[in-house]
Amino acid sequence: MKQELKQQVVEANQRLVSSGLVALTWGNVSAIDRESGLVAIKPSGVDYAALTPENLVVVNLAGEVVEGDLRPSSDTKTHLELYRSFPNIGAVVHTHSSCATAFSQAGVALPCLGTTHADHFYGDVPVARALTPEEVESDYEHATGVSIVELFQQQNLNPLEMPAVLLKHHAPFTWGKDPVKAVDNSIALEMCAKMALMTWQLQPDAGEMPRHILEKHYQRKHGKDAYYGQN
Amino acid sequence: MKQELKQQVVEANQRLVSSGLVALTWGNVSAIDRESGLVAIKPSGVDYAALTPENLVVVNLAGEVVEGDLRPSSDTKTHLELYRSFPNIGAVVHTHSSCATAFSQAGVALPCLGTTHADHFYGDVPVARALTPEEVESDYEHATGVSIVELFQQQNLNPLEMPAVLLKHHAPFTWGKDPVKAVDNSIALEMCAKMALMTWQLQPDAGEMPRHILEKHYQRKHGKDAYYGQN
Amino acid sequence: MKQELKQQVVEANQRLVSSGLVALTWGNVSAIDRESGLVAIKPSGVDYAALTPENLVVVNLAGEVVEGDLRPSSDTKTHLELYRSFPNIGAVVHTHSSCATAFSQAGVALPCLGTTHADHFYGDVPVARALTPEEVESDYEHATGVSIVELFQQQNLNPLEMPAVLLKHHAPFTWGKDPVKAVDNSIALEMCAKMALMTWQLQPDAGEMPRHILEKHYQRKHGKDAYYGQN
Amino acid sequence: MKQELKQQVVEANQRLVSSGLVALTWGNVSAIDRESGLVAIKPSGVDYAALTPENLVVVNLAGEVVEGDLRPSSDTKTHLELYRSFPNIGAVVHTHSSCATAFSQAGVALPCLGTTHADHFYGDVPVARALTPEEVESDYEHATGVSIVELFQQQNLNPLEMPAVLLKHHAPFTWGKDPVKAVDNSIALEMCAKMALMTWQLQPDAGEMPRHILEKHYQRKHGKDAYYGQN
């Protein structure tokens, strides 16, 4: 695995702290090198400040550790299921950021209430169902990933257009083409969740914004004629 | 365009970050040199820390780039419409600051609930209407500016007395005589919105404060006999 | 006026910023030298970082400037009325801190909901009435001070036991024996207001805590047999 | 008492500030050396930045000062009762962190609404009863500790599985095997309380999450086959 990608994973993990998305060790970022099929992920329970490209754990898509002396994130199997099923994503982020976690705990999908949301998420951010006792007991973290993939199939969602999910009773996952974009989506999700809570205090009936404005904002940033940014 | 004004635009953009008003690249500041009619604005999607007077984009009031290699902010046409229609303003700010954006998303005008508000905004901060599908499709950012100008004409508002607007489904714009004052108004708007949310939790019926106190606070800071500050 | 007291006033003003109690220039601290009857106060509209003992304004209790080239805080007359009527206080603080200002705007007194409050304020923090048009027009800042003093007389409050007040439609004032204690009270007031908002979300009927616990906490810190701290 | 443990107590106290859990001097951490039965605790009312291993106060389990020139935390007797009754704990933390204090003031237990909570607390965080006038008058801080111990006996709680309590009208205490773990629990408690407030805004009926997910998360981190972290 390339040193450069590992360095990006270290920086993306550390950016979870500087962005206020994680307390203690409540979050992890991974990235995949699609050529080799190898995934670099945060070691479990290690402080963000202590991360280096050398102490990241590298696993293959079957979950076998191929590099590193530490135990990988306890959420590794969820990351791997996402990489196997969503072939266009390059990085995955898990946090317990406060506002998005509140939506997860409440089991409430996050509707597109404004352009901030439409700039990042093409519609409602959905909630994945709670796992059954059997799923939790047999292979919890793998089943978590499967429940996300099922949800996206059922709702016919494109993972690059909807790079986030809320896990019932748990917390969010986001992803993206690379570690920077995946963390951007975690930040955007947290801010949209925070603003939704206040929007509903002001206007409890507020629902999805008009579709033509949602389309405009999503497409001006992500569509084929996008004109936001420098690329 | 003078180097000094460009430097002020750089610093004003960076102050959006240090004041906690923007996440990611969700905000932009511009300023106009009224003599030449040239406007310096943040390039689109560029990190605030990377801004310099040299990489700002300079456009004329017709929207043509006259200096700079980067693409200007996607909101440039909104800024330009404000400069064309509000001849006394010198700088414009757009953010997605959380509390003011919640008011925008809810479509709720921000009433003057106390002296903090009266020190900056001479009455309710109004909400501009959502744009029609036709407006969004033909020239979205220009139509956004036009909707603000129409609102101020309909409500007979003086842009220097009411240097802020909430865009329905979107977020706020503020402005001022110069970049410092325009960002001051973004900070004041966000704080007033935050305090209004809490005021209404305590007292759901709280409305505009008595007019004589509003007048006093606005005039002691902005009137012809103002005695706030050193000028 | 002693240089040491001026230095304390500078540091107390700057601590308003580092404690998150003020945005822009929304706050001021003064202190009185009771021997000479002179008061050092923040100049109006000046950035906190630019304050030095030399650019503070020194006024006498009649409000005449006796030192300094700048205009004193626009709230100076309120400070002076407090010094004249509350002979045991040594410093006064005014902020627009968000949560305490929300209580002020709502006109809701802050009850003693727990020991954090009882450690600093001996009972409910009261709300001073709105001023009449005549009071606002004739001598607004002086009348503000008078309304506080009247309130404390009517409610028979001891200013050292209740070192805070909420001004209707406006914001809080606090005070104390010296600048450090006065700012401590502003911080405590803001935190107690913040916690009250959340307490009432959980339990809308929560009112004053049992009197015997209030007494215990107030007296263990401020009573004649106090055993909190090192003095 | 070993210098190393004292150093840990200093750092744990200072981490209360850097984690945003305390304002002013509203919190304290202690640790016990079980071999000697000596407890190192923060001196009362002293700024966190001024703490050193040398100015900590060392007391025995009977509450006698055996080292140090300063007065120990006014909450020392509560700490000592916890050490005497909970023989497996190594450190105790008291804060007035905002959200957990709001739950304390409201007298509302904090249910396990999601996996963040289950990762740290094995069920509801309970509320200890208010003390009677007699208890408050005779030996307040000791009685506080006794009320916690009684509660844990009545509810048959294991202090290492439930390392936190909310004191009615007051604020939380947490503990753990060592100072780092005890402060971790204070941080986790504050975050869970914050997220619960938002969860209930979204879904007022939200109660304890399904027991099988609670079990899974608690056990994967704390059970005999735990696989979270590196130990």
From TrEMBL, chains A, B, C, D:
It is an enzyme of class 5 (isomerase). Residues 7-197 form the Class II aldolase/adducin N-terminal domain. It holds the Pfam family Aldolase_II. It catalyses: L-ribulose 5-phosphate = D-xylulose 5-phosphate. Its EC number is 5.1.3.4. GO terms for cellular component: cytosol. InterPro entries: Aldolase_class_II_sugar_metab, Aldolase_II/adducin_N, Aldolase_II/adducin_N_sf. Keywords: Carbohydrate metabolism, Isomerase, Metal-binding, Zinc. SUPFAM superfamilies: AraD/HMP-PK domain-like. One of its GO terms (molecular function) is L-ribulose-phosphate 4-epimerase activity. GO terms for biological process: pentose catabolic process. Belongs to the aldolase class II family. AraD/FucA subfamily. PANTHER family: FUCULOSE PHOSPHATE ALDOLASE, L-RIBULOSE-5-PHOSPHATE 4-EPIMERASE SGBE. This is L-ribulose-5-phosphate 4-epimerase. It comes from Oceaniferula flava.
